[in-house]
Amino acid sequence: MPENTEISELPVAVIGAGPVGLAAAAELLERGLAPIIFEAGATPASAVASWGHIRLFSPWQYDVDAAARRLLAPTGWQEPDAETLPTGAELHAQYLSPLAAVPAIADALHTSTRVLAVSREGLDKTRTGGRENAPFLLRVEDAEGTITDYRARAVIDASGTWSTPNPLGQAGLRAVGEADAFEAGLITAPLPDVTGRDRARFAGKHVLVVGAGHSAANTLLALGELAEQEPGTRISWAIRSASANGVYGGGDLDGLPARGALGSRLRTLVQEGRIELHTSFTITGFKTSDTLAVVGTTPEGEKQLDVDLLVPATGFRPDLNLLREIRLDLDPAVEAPRELGPLIDPEFHSCGTVAPHGAKMLSHPEKDFYIVGMKSYGRAPTFLMATGYEQVRSIAAALAGDQQAADDVQLVLPETGVCSTDLGGSCDAPAADGAAEAVSCCGTAPEPAAEQASSCCGAPEAAPEPAPAASSCCSAPEPQFLGIPTGLEHGRSAARES
After folding, report:
1. Which range, of 18-32, 49-63, 168-182, averages the lowest pLDDT?
2. pLDDT at position 348
3. What's in the keyword line of the UniProt record (predicted)?
4. How many CA atoms lie within 13 A of 268 on its CB side?
5. 3-state secondary structure (DSSP) of residue 263
6. 473: part of which helix (H) or strand (E)?
Protein backbone atom coordinates (compact mmCIF):
# COMPACT_ATOMS: atom_id res chain seq x y z
CA MET A 1 0.00 0.00 0.00
CA PRO A 2 1.11 3.61 -0.45
CA GLU A 3 2.94 5.15 2.52
CA ASN A 4 0.31 7.88 2.66
CA THR A 5 -0.92 7.82 6.27
CA GLU A 6 -4.41 9.02 5.40
CA ILE A 7 -4.95 6.30 2.82
CA SER A 8 -3.40 3.58 4.97
CA GLU A 9 -5.93 4.32 7.69
CA LEU A 10 -8.89 3.89 5.36
CA PRO A 11 -10.87 0.62 5.36
CA VAL A 12 -10.82 -2.03 2.67
CA ALA A 13 -14.19 -2.02 0.91
CA VAL A 14 -15.83 -5.42 0.39
CA ILE A 15 -18.76 -5.48 -2.03
CA GLY A 16 -21.14 -8.29 -1.17
CA ALA A 17 -21.75 -10.16 2.11
CA GLY A 18 -22.14 -13.66 0.74
CA PRO A 19 -19.87 -16.57 1.74
CA VAL A 20 -16.79 -15.18 -0.04
CA GLY A 21 -17.43 -11.55 0.92
CA LEU A 22 -17.80 -12.44 4.61
CA ALA A 23 -14.71 -14.64 4.36
CA ALA A 24 -12.85 -11.66 2.89
CA ALA A 25 -13.89 -9.58 5.91
CA ALA A 26 -12.70 -12.30 8.29
CA GLU A 27 -9.36 -12.61 6.50
CA LEU A 28 -8.85 -8.83 6.57
CA LEU A 29 -9.63 -8.64 10.26
CA GLU A 30 -7.18 -11.41 11.01
CA ARG A 31 -4.53 -9.38 9.18
CA GLY A 32 -5.29 -6.26 11.21
CA LEU A 33 -7.06 -4.51 8.32
CA ALA A 34 -10.46 -2.82 8.74
CA PRO A 35 -13.19 -3.86 6.31
CA ILE A 36 -16.29 -1.94 5.30
CA ILE A 37 -18.88 -4.25 3.76
CA PHE A 38 -21.73 -3.30 1.45
CA GLU A 39 -24.57 -5.78 0.92
CA ALA A 40 -27.39 -4.96 -1.51
CA GLY A 41 -29.80 -7.34 0.22
CA ALA A 42 -31.70 -6.66 3.40
CA THR A 43 -29.77 -9.37 5.24
CA PRO A 44 -26.24 -10.72 5.00
CA ALA A 45 -25.92 -13.36 2.27
CA SER A 46 -29.38 -12.52 0.95
CA ALA A 47 -28.75 -14.45 -2.26
CA VAL A 48 -28.06 -17.60 -0.26
CA ALA A 49 -31.29 -17.07 1.64
CA SER A 50 -33.19 -16.97 -1.64
CA TRP A 51 -32.12 -20.53 -2.52
CA GLY A 52 -32.42 -21.85 1.02
CA HIS A 53 -34.37 -24.93 -0.09
CA ILE A 54 -31.38 -26.22 -2.09
CA ARG A 55 -29.03 -28.73 -0.44
CA LEU A 56 -25.31 -28.46 -1.08
CA PHE A 57 -23.30 -31.50 -2.01
CA SER A 58 -20.38 -30.27 0.09
CA PRO A 59 -20.22 -31.27 3.76
CA TRP A 60 -19.81 -28.61 6.39
CA GLN A 61 -16.09 -29.18 6.80
CA TYR A 62 -15.52 -27.53 3.40
CA ASP A 63 -18.13 -24.78 3.68
CA VAL A 64 -16.48 -22.71 6.43
CA ASP A 65 -13.56 -20.37 5.77
CA ALA A 66 -10.59 -20.95 8.08
CA ALA A 67 -10.28 -17.33 9.24
CA ALA A 68 -14.04 -17.14 9.74
CA ARG A 69 -13.88 -20.29 11.88
CA ARG A 70 -11.20 -18.70 14.05
CA LEU A 71 -13.20 -15.48 14.32
CA LEU A 72 -16.30 -17.38 15.40
CA ALA A 73 -14.59 -19.65 17.91
CA PRO A 74 -14.51 -17.16 20.87
CA THR A 75 -18.23 -16.43 20.45
CA GLY A 76 -19.30 -19.89 21.55
CA TRP A 77 -20.34 -20.80 18.00
CA GLN A 78 -20.96 -24.50 17.59
CA GLU A 79 -19.68 -25.70 14.23
CA PRO A 80 -22.13 -28.10 12.57
CA ASP A 81 -21.23 -31.74 12.08
CA ALA A 82 -18.39 -31.85 9.58
CA GLU A 83 -19.90 -34.61 7.45
CA THR A 84 -23.43 -33.19 7.20
CA LEU A 85 -24.63 -31.60 3.97
CA PRO A 86 -26.33 -28.26 4.66
CA THR A 87 -29.14 -26.64 2.76
CA GLY A 88 -28.77 -23.02 1.76
CA ALA A 89 -31.03 -22.09 4.67
CA GLU A 90 -28.84 -24.03 7.09
CA LEU A 91 -25.68 -22.49 5.65
CA HIS A 92 -27.25 -19.08 6.17
CA ALA A 93 -28.63 -19.69 9.66
CA GLN A 94 -25.84 -21.79 11.16
CA TYR A 95 -22.77 -20.11 9.65
CA LEU A 96 -23.26 -16.94 7.61
CA SER A 97 -25.64 -15.18 9.98
CA PRO A 98 -23.52 -15.90 13.08
CA LEU A 99 -20.42 -14.77 11.19
CA ALA A 100 -22.11 -11.53 10.13
CA ALA A 101 -23.18 -10.98 13.75
CA VAL A 102 -19.61 -11.05 15.11
CA PRO A 103 -19.19 -7.45 16.35
CA ALA A 104 -16.11 -6.73 14.24
CA ILE A 105 -18.07 -7.65 11.10
CA ALA A 106 -21.48 -6.36 12.18
CA ASP A 107 -20.03 -2.91 12.90
CA ALA A 108 -18.60 -2.79 9.38
CA LEU A 109 -21.63 -4.20 7.55
CA HIS A 110 -24.10 -2.02 5.63
CA THR A 111 -27.11 -4.01 4.41
CA SER A 112 -29.72 -2.74 1.95
CA THR A 113 -26.86 -0.74 0.46
CA ARG A 114 -26.09 -1.11 -3.21
CA VAL A 115 -22.78 -0.03 -4.71
CA LEU A 116 -23.54 2.06 -7.79
CA ALA A 117 -19.99 2.80 -8.91
CA VAL A 118 -16.34 2.40 -8.00
CA SER A 119 -13.71 4.96 -9.02
CA ARG A 120 -10.63 6.82 -7.74
CA GLU A 121 -11.18 10.00 -5.78
CA GLY A 122 -10.79 12.97 -8.11
CA LEU A 123 -9.78 10.83 -11.10
CA ASP A 124 -11.81 9.27 -13.86
CA LYS A 125 -10.63 6.22 -15.76
CA THR A 126 -8.54 8.25 -18.22
CA ARG A 127 -6.36 9.98 -15.59
CA THR A 128 -3.05 8.30 -14.73
CA GLY A 129 -1.03 10.82 -12.73
CA GLY A 130 -1.22 10.13 -8.99
CA ARG A 131 -3.69 7.31 -9.51
CA GLU A 132 -2.08 4.76 -7.21
CA ASN A 133 -1.93 7.30 -4.39
CA ALA A 134 -5.59 8.29 -4.64
CA PRO A 135 -8.13 6.49 -2.45
CA PHE A 136 -10.92 4.53 -4.03
CA LEU A 137 -14.33 6.18 -4.14
CA LEU A 138 -17.45 4.01 -3.79
CA ARG A 139 -20.80 5.58 -4.49
CA VAL A 140 -23.58 3.68 -2.71
CA GLU A 141 -27.34 3.97 -2.35
CA ASP A 142 -29.24 2.85 0.75
CA ALA A 143 -32.83 1.61 1.09
CA GLU A 144 -34.16 5.17 1.44
CA GLY A 145 -32.49 6.23 -1.79
CA THR A 146 -29.79 8.27 -0.05
CA ILE A 147 -26.55 8.32 -2.03
CA THR A 148 -23.26 8.46 -0.16
CA ASP A 149 -19.62 8.39 -1.26
CA TYR A 150 -17.19 6.26 0.76
CA ARG A 151 -13.39 6.28 0.57
CA ALA A 152 -11.36 3.09 0.76
CA ARG A 153 -7.71 2.03 0.54
CA ALA A 154 -8.57 -1.08 -1.52
CA VAL A 155 -11.65 -2.76 -2.99
CA ILE A 156 -12.64 -6.45 -3.07
CA ASP A 157 -15.65 -7.03 -5.33
CA ALA A 158 -17.42 -10.19 -4.12
CA SER A 159 -20.84 -9.19 -5.43
CA GLY A 160 -21.42 -12.43 -7.33
CA THR A 161 -23.61 -12.99 -10.37
CA TRP A 162 -26.99 -13.94 -8.86
CA SER A 163 -28.72 -10.74 -9.98
CA THR A 164 -27.64 -11.07 -13.63
CA PRO A 165 -28.87 -14.33 -15.17
CA ASN A 166 -27.97 -15.11 -18.75
CA PRO A 167 -30.56 -14.23 -21.40
CA LEU A 168 -32.72 -17.02 -22.77
CA GLY A 169 -32.28 -16.01 -26.40
CA GLN A 170 -29.59 -16.99 -28.86
CA ALA A 171 -26.14 -15.39 -29.28
CA GLY A 172 -26.02 -14.20 -25.68
CA LEU A 173 -28.91 -11.79 -26.27
CA ARG A 174 -32.41 -11.53 -24.90
CA ALA A 175 -35.00 -13.01 -27.21
CA VAL A 176 -37.65 -10.72 -28.66
CA GLY A 177 -40.36 -10.37 -26.04
CA GLU A 178 -38.23 -11.77 -23.21
CA ALA A 179 -38.38 -8.59 -21.12
CA ASP A 180 -42.17 -8.46 -21.47
CA ALA A 181 -42.47 -12.10 -20.39
CA PHE A 182 -40.42 -11.39 -17.26
CA GLU A 183 -42.51 -8.32 -16.53
CA ALA A 184 -45.70 -10.37 -16.87
CA GLY A 185 -44.42 -12.92 -14.36
CA LEU A 186 -44.43 -15.74 -16.90
CA ILE A 187 -40.69 -16.33 -16.50
CA THR A 188 -39.72 -17.17 -12.93
CA ALA A 189 -36.55 -16.48 -11.00
CA PRO A 190 -33.92 -19.24 -11.13
CA LEU A 191 -34.20 -22.13 -8.67
CA PRO A 192 -37.82 -21.71 -7.56
CA ASP A 193 -38.96 -23.73 -4.53
CA VAL A 194 -41.31 -25.89 -6.57
CA THR A 195 -42.51 -28.19 -3.79
CA GLY A 196 -42.32 -25.58 -1.01
CA ARG A 197 -43.10 -21.88 -0.89
CA ASP A 198 -43.73 -21.62 -4.67
CA ARG A 199 -45.88 -24.75 -4.88
CA ALA A 200 -49.16 -22.97 -5.62
CA ARG A 201 -47.58 -21.17 -8.54
CA PHE A 202 -46.66 -24.43 -10.29
CA ALA A 203 -49.40 -26.86 -9.26
CA GLY A 204 -51.61 -27.84 -12.18
CA LYS A 205 -49.62 -25.71 -14.65
CA HIS A 206 -47.68 -26.48 -17.82
CA VAL A 207 -44.11 -25.57 -16.94
CA LEU A 208 -41.16 -25.32 -19.32
CA VAL A 209 -37.62 -25.63 -17.94
CA VAL A 210 -34.85 -24.25 -20.16
CA GLY A 211 -31.27 -25.34 -19.57
CA ALA A 212 -28.98 -28.36 -19.46
CA GLY A 213 -27.27 -28.00 -16.10
CA HIS A 214 -27.85 -29.40 -12.66
CA SER A 215 -30.16 -26.56 -11.72
CA ALA A 216 -32.38 -27.63 -14.61
CA ALA A 217 -32.17 -31.28 -13.55
CA ASN A 218 -33.12 -30.57 -9.96
CA THR A 219 -35.99 -28.29 -10.95
CA LEU A 220 -37.27 -30.99 -13.32
CA LEU A 221 -37.12 -33.63 -10.60
CA ALA A 222 -38.97 -31.34 -8.20
CA LEU A 223 -41.63 -30.75 -10.85
CA GLY A 224 -41.86 -34.50 -11.36
CA GLU A 225 -42.55 -34.92 -7.64
CA LEU A 226 -45.16 -32.16 -7.78
CA ALA A 227 -46.85 -33.72 -10.81
CA GLU A 228 -47.37 -36.95 -8.84
CA GLN A 229 -49.28 -35.00 -6.21
CA GLU A 230 -51.01 -32.34 -8.27
CA PRO A 231 -53.08 -33.54 -11.25
CA GLY A 232 -52.76 -31.46 -14.38
CA THR A 233 -49.15 -30.48 -13.76
CA ARG A 234 -47.33 -30.87 -17.06
CA ILE A 235 -43.58 -30.62 -17.61
CA SER A 236 -41.61 -29.67 -20.72
CA TRP A 237 -37.85 -29.35 -21.03
CA ALA A 238 -35.96 -27.49 -23.77
CA ILE A 239 -32.22 -27.68 -24.46
CA ARG A 240 -30.10 -26.38 -27.31
CA SER A 241 -27.97 -29.51 -27.59
CA ALA A 242 -29.04 -32.49 -29.66
CA SER A 243 -29.00 -34.90 -26.71
CA ALA A 244 -29.58 -34.86 -22.96
CA ASN A 245 -27.11 -37.68 -22.33
CA GLY A 246 -24.64 -35.30 -20.75
CA VAL A 247 -27.21 -34.38 -18.12
CA TYR A 248 -28.10 -38.01 -17.43
CA GLY A 249 -24.50 -38.89 -16.62
CA GLY A 250 -23.19 -42.39 -16.09
CA GLY A 251 -26.04 -43.91 -14.10
CA ASP A 252 -24.90 -47.04 -12.25
CA LEU A 253 -21.38 -46.56 -13.64
CA ASP A 254 -21.03 -43.14 -12.05
CA GLY A 255 -18.33 -43.08 -9.38
CA LEU A 256 -20.62 -40.85 -7.29
CA PRO A 257 -23.84 -42.82 -6.78
CA ALA A 258 -26.05 -39.85 -5.87
CA ARG A 259 -25.12 -38.07 -9.07
CA GLY A 260 -25.76 -41.20 -11.08
CA ALA A 261 -29.10 -41.61 -9.34
CA LEU A 262 -30.11 -38.06 -10.16
CA GLY A 263 -29.35 -38.56 -13.84
CA SER A 264 -31.06 -41.94 -13.88
CA ARG A 265 -34.20 -40.53 -12.28
CA LEU A 266 -34.32 -37.73 -14.82
CA ARG A 267 -33.82 -40.13 -17.72
CA THR A 268 -36.64 -42.32 -16.41
CA LEU A 269 -39.04 -39.37 -16.22
CA VAL A 270 -38.26 -38.50 -19.84
CA GLN A 271 -38.51 -42.09 -21.07
CA GLU A 272 -41.84 -42.57 -19.31
CA GLY A 273 -43.20 -39.45 -20.99
CA ARG A 274 -43.65 -37.57 -17.74
CA ILE A 275 -41.24 -34.94 -19.03
CA GLU A 276 -41.54 -33.83 -22.66
CA LEU A 277 -38.01 -33.20 -23.94
CA HIS A 278 -37.32 -30.78 -26.80
CA THR A 279 -33.74 -31.04 -28.06
CA SER A 280 -31.97 -28.73 -30.52
CA PHE A 281 -34.37 -25.98 -29.48
CA THR A 282 -33.05 -22.40 -29.67
CA ILE A 283 -35.38 -19.71 -28.34
CA THR A 284 -35.91 -16.80 -30.71
CA GLY A 285 -38.93 -15.04 -29.23
CA PHE A 286 -41.78 -14.89 -26.74
CA LYS A 287 -45.43 -13.94 -27.16
CA THR A 288 -47.11 -12.92 -23.94
CA SER A 289 -50.81 -13.17 -23.13
CA ASP A 290 -52.45 -15.05 -20.27
CA THR A 291 -49.97 -17.77 -21.09
CA LEU A 292 -46.55 -17.77 -22.73
CA ALA A 293 -45.79 -18.77 -26.31
CA VAL A 294 -42.12 -19.75 -26.62
CA VAL A 295 -40.90 -19.59 -30.22
CA GLY A 296 -37.75 -21.40 -31.23
CA THR A 297 -35.81 -22.81 -34.14
CA THR A 298 -35.18 -26.54 -34.53
CA PRO A 299 -33.62 -28.66 -37.31
CA GLU A 300 -37.17 -29.20 -38.59
CA GLY A 301 -37.95 -25.49 -38.66
CA GLU A 302 -39.71 -23.06 -36.34
CA LYS A 303 -41.60 -24.49 -33.38
CA GLN A 304 -43.85 -22.95 -30.73
CA LEU A 305 -44.34 -24.22 -27.18
CA ASP A 306 -47.36 -22.87 -25.31
CA VAL A 307 -46.83 -22.95 -21.54
CA ASP A 308 -48.03 -21.34 -18.35
CA LEU A 309 -44.61 -20.70 -16.84
CA LEU A 310 -40.95 -20.88 -17.84
CA VAL A 311 -38.12 -21.62 -15.39
CA PRO A 312 -34.73 -20.33 -16.63
CA ALA A 313 -31.67 -22.48 -15.84
CA THR A 314 -29.11 -21.07 -18.26
CA GLY A 315 -26.54 -19.67 -15.86
CA PHE A 316 -25.36 -16.19 -14.94
CA ARG A 317 -22.90 -13.50 -15.97
CA PRO A 318 -21.07 -10.70 -14.10
CA ASP A 319 -22.42 -7.17 -13.80
CA LEU A 320 -19.52 -4.93 -14.76
CA ASN A 321 -21.45 -1.65 -14.99
CA LEU A 322 -20.43 -0.45 -11.53
CA LEU A 323 -16.76 -0.87 -12.55
CA ARG A 324 -16.75 1.35 -15.62
CA GLU A 325 -14.31 3.82 -14.03
CA ILE A 326 -11.93 1.10 -12.87
CA ARG A 327 -9.06 -0.05 -15.08
CA LEU A 328 -9.76 -3.74 -15.61
CA ASP A 329 -7.83 -6.35 -17.56
CA LEU A 330 -10.37 -9.01 -18.49
CA ASP A 331 -10.20 -12.05 -20.70
CA PRO A 332 -12.23 -11.11 -23.81
CA ALA A 333 -14.10 -14.41 -23.86
CA VAL A 334 -15.10 -15.26 -20.30
CA GLU A 335 -14.76 -11.81 -18.67
CA ALA A 336 -12.52 -13.13 -15.91
CA PRO A 337 -9.15 -11.56 -14.99
CA ARG A 338 -6.95 -11.96 -18.05
CA GLU A 339 -4.47 -14.43 -16.55
CA LEU A 340 -7.25 -16.57 -15.14
CA GLY A 341 -9.54 -16.52 -18.18
CA PRO A 342 -7.69 -19.03 -20.39
CA LEU A 343 -7.45 -21.46 -17.46
CA ILE A 344 -11.22 -21.61 -16.93
CA ASP A 345 -12.58 -21.22 -20.46
CA PRO A 346 -14.86 -24.29 -20.75
CA GLU A 347 -14.22 -24.59 -24.48
CA PHE A 348 -10.58 -25.48 -23.84
CA HIS A 349 -10.26 -26.72 -20.27
CA SER A 350 -12.09 -29.02 -17.92
CA CYS A 351 -12.35 -27.89 -14.33
CA GLY A 352 -9.64 -30.38 -13.44
CA THR A 353 -7.02 -28.20 -15.12
CA VAL A 354 -7.81 -24.92 -13.30
CA ALA A 355 -4.95 -23.78 -11.08
CA PRO A 356 -5.53 -22.49 -7.57
CA HIS A 357 -4.94 -18.78 -7.67
CA GLY A 358 -4.67 -15.71 -5.50
CA ALA A 359 -3.84 -12.03 -5.51
CA LYS A 360 -1.26 -12.18 -8.28
CA MET A 361 -3.52 -13.83 -10.84
CA LEU A 362 -6.54 -11.76 -9.80
CA SER A 363 -4.81 -8.38 -10.02
CA HIS A 364 -5.81 -5.65 -12.46
CA PRO A 365 -4.07 -2.51 -13.74
CA GLU A 366 -6.02 -0.76 -10.98
CA LYS A 367 -3.73 -1.38 -8.00
CA ASP A 368 -5.39 -2.91 -4.93
CA PHE A 369 -8.62 -3.68 -6.75
CA TYR A 370 -9.77 -7.32 -6.97
CA ILE A 371 -12.79 -9.26 -8.22
CA VAL A 372 -13.32 -12.48 -6.24
CA GLY A 373 -15.82 -15.27 -5.84
CA MET A 374 -18.18 -16.26 -8.59
CA LYS A 375 -17.79 -12.90 -10.27
CA SER A 376 -14.06 -13.56 -10.69
CA TYR A 377 -14.95 -16.45 -13.03
CA GLY A 378 -16.94 -14.12 -15.27
CA ARG A 379 -19.02 -16.21 -17.63
CA ALA A 380 -17.05 -19.40 -16.99
CA PRO A 381 -18.46 -22.16 -14.80
CA THR A 382 -17.02 -24.52 -12.16
CA PHE A 383 -16.43 -22.04 -9.35
CA LEU A 384 -16.21 -23.35 -5.79
CA MET A 385 -16.48 -21.71 -2.39
CA ALA A 386 -13.10 -23.14 -1.39
CA THR A 387 -11.54 -21.42 -4.39
CA GLY A 388 -13.06 -18.14 -3.21
CA TYR A 389 -11.82 -18.63 0.33
CA GLU A 390 -8.26 -19.11 -0.92
CA GLN A 391 -8.61 -16.10 -3.21
CA VAL A 392 -9.46 -13.76 -0.35
CA ARG A 393 -6.86 -15.29 2.00
CA SER A 394 -4.18 -14.47 -0.57
CA ILE A 395 -5.55 -10.99 -1.24
CA ALA A 396 -5.72 -10.10 2.46
CA ALA A 397 -2.11 -11.19 2.81
CA ALA A 398 -1.10 -9.04 -0.16
CA LEU A 399 -2.91 -5.99 1.19
CA ALA A 400 -1.22 -6.50 4.54
CA GLY A 401 2.18 -6.51 2.85
CA ASP A 402 2.87 -10.24 3.31
CA GLN A 403 3.69 -11.05 -0.30
CA GLN A 404 5.17 -14.45 0.52
CA ALA A 405 1.89 -15.61 2.06
CA ALA A 406 -0.05 -14.04 -0.80
CA ASP A 407 1.97 -15.98 -3.37
CA ASP A 408 1.88 -19.26 -1.44
CA VAL A 409 -1.42 -20.52 -2.86
CA GLN A 410 -1.89 -23.99 -1.43
CA LEU A 411 -5.38 -25.10 -2.47
CA VAL A 412 -5.11 -28.68 -3.74
CA LEU A 413 -8.27 -30.28 -5.06
CA PRO A 414 -8.32 -34.02 -5.81
CA GLU A 415 -9.87 -35.29 -9.01
CA THR A 416 -13.30 -36.89 -8.81
CA GLY A 417 -14.67 -37.43 -12.32
CA VAL A 418 -15.37 -35.00 -15.23
CA CYS A 419 -16.84 -31.56 -15.57
CA SER A 420 -18.83 -31.60 -18.77
CA THR A 421 -20.09 -28.43 -20.36
CA ASP A 422 -23.18 -30.44 -21.26
CA LEU A 423 -24.04 -30.17 -17.57
CA GLY A 424 -24.08 -26.42 -17.72
CA GLY A 425 -20.51 -26.56 -16.56
CA SER A 426 -21.13 -26.49 -12.84
CA CYS A 427 -19.24 -28.75 -10.50
CA ASP A 428 -21.09 -27.28 -7.57
CA ALA A 429 -24.38 -29.08 -7.43
CA PRO A 430 -26.96 -29.70 -4.73
CA ALA A 431 -27.58 -33.19 -3.54
CA ALA A 432 -30.38 -35.40 -4.72
CA ASP A 433 -32.52 -36.38 -1.72
CA GLY A 434 -29.87 -35.05 0.60
CA ALA A 435 -27.12 -37.34 -0.62
CA ALA A 436 -23.72 -36.16 -1.74
CA GLU A 437 -23.66 -35.43 -5.43
CA ALA A 438 -21.17 -33.84 -7.76
CA VAL A 439 -20.32 -33.48 -11.37
CA SER A 440 -17.42 -35.72 -12.26
CA CYS A 441 -14.11 -34.24 -13.32
CA CYS A 442 -12.16 -36.67 -15.43
CA GLY A 443 -8.58 -36.16 -16.36
CA THR A 444 -5.32 -36.67 -14.58
CA ALA A 445 -4.00 -33.73 -12.65
CA PRO A 446 -0.36 -32.72 -12.92
CA GLU A 447 1.82 -32.83 -9.83
CA PRO A 448 0.17 -30.41 -7.41
CA ALA A 449 2.04 -27.48 -5.95
CA ALA A 450 1.35 -23.85 -5.35
CA GLU A 451 -0.40 -22.48 -8.44
CA GLN A 452 -0.85 -25.97 -9.95
CA ALA A 453 -3.87 -27.74 -11.26
CA SER A 454 -6.95 -28.19 -9.14
CA SER A 455 -10.16 -30.09 -9.53
CA CYS A 456 -13.62 -28.66 -9.57
CA CYS A 457 -15.22 -31.14 -7.29
CA GLY A 458 -13.34 -31.24 -4.07
CA ALA A 459 -11.29 -29.02 -1.83
CA PRO A 460 -9.45 -29.77 1.35
CA GLU A 461 -8.41 -26.74 3.31
CA ALA A 462 -5.17 -25.13 2.22
CA ALA A 463 -2.43 -27.64 2.97
CA PRO A 464 1.04 -26.68 4.17
CA GLU A 465 2.61 -29.38 2.04
CA PRO A 466 1.66 -30.43 -1.52
CA ALA A 467 -0.64 -33.41 -1.62
CA PRO A 468 0.11 -36.49 -3.71
CA ALA A 469 -0.75 -36.27 -7.36
CA ALA A 470 -4.46 -36.65 -7.95
CA SER A 471 -5.64 -39.79 -9.61
CA SER A 472 -7.65 -39.97 -12.77
CA CYS A 473 -11.29 -39.06 -12.78
CA CYS A 474 -13.14 -42.13 -11.71
CA SER A 475 -10.70 -43.54 -9.19
CA ALA A 476 -9.78 -40.66 -6.94
CA PRO A 477 -8.92 -41.88 -3.43
CA GLU A 478 -11.15 -40.50 -0.71
CA PRO A 479 -13.00 -38.00 -2.93
CA GLN A 480 -13.91 -34.78 -1.21
CA PHE A 481 -16.64 -32.46 -2.33
CA LEU A 482 -17.04 -28.77 -2.04
CA GLY A 483 -19.98 -27.09 -3.64
CA ILE A 484 -22.44 -24.32 -4.01
CA PRO A 485 -25.97 -24.78 -5.35
CA THR A 486 -26.67 -25.29 -8.99
CA GLY A 487 -28.59 -22.06 -9.07
CA LEU A 488 -25.24 -20.37 -9.06
CA GLU A 489 -24.07 -22.07 -12.23
CA HIS A 490 -22.91 -19.52 -14.74
CA GLY A 491 -20.90 -19.31 -17.89
CA ARG A 492 -20.94 -19.52 -21.65
CA SER A 493 -21.30 -23.26 -21.53
CA ALA A 494 -24.52 -23.01 -19.57
CA ALA A 495 -25.93 -20.48 -22.00
CA ARG A 496 -24.69 -22.36 -25.03
CA GLU A 497 -26.03 -25.73 -23.93
CA SER A 498 -29.41 -24.53 -22.78
Report:
1. 49-63
2. 76
3. Oxidoreductase
4. 10
5. helix
6. none
From residue 388, give the alpha-carbon distance in Å to each of 108, 249, 355, 459, 484.
21, 27, 13, 11, 11
Listed in sequence order, the residues at least 6 apart from 328 whose beta carbon sits closer than 8 Å to its beta carbon are 320, 364, 365, 366
pLDDT for res 56 = 81
Residues in the chain: 498
Average pLDDT across the chain, whole number: 82
- 106 alpha-carbon distance from chain centroid: 24
DSSP string, 420-451: -GGGTT-S--BPGGGS-------SPPPPP-TT
Q: Give pLDDT tens digits for 295-343.
A: 999 999 999 999 999 999 998 999 999 999 999 999 999 999 999 998 8
Pair 105, 310: CB distance under 8 Å: no
Per the DSSP assignment, residues forming a β-bridge with 37 are: 14, 109
d(CA 262, CA 258): 6
pLDDT at 1: 40
Per-position DSSP letters for 299-360, written without gaps between them: TTEEEEEEESEEEE-S-B----GGGTTS---B-TTT-SBTTTHHHH-TTT--GGGBPP--HH
pLDDT at 220: 96
Output the pLDDT for position 55: 85
User: Which DSSP string corresponds to 117-177?
Assistant: EEEETTB-TT--TTGGGSPEEEEEE-TT--EEEEEESEEEE---STT-BPPSSGGGSPPBT
Pairing state between β 206-210 and 154-157: unpaired
Does residue 366 surpass a pLDDT of 50? yes
- Which pLDDT score is estimated for 213? 80
Strands of the sheet containing 234-238, edge to edge, are 275-278, 234-238, 206-210, 309-312
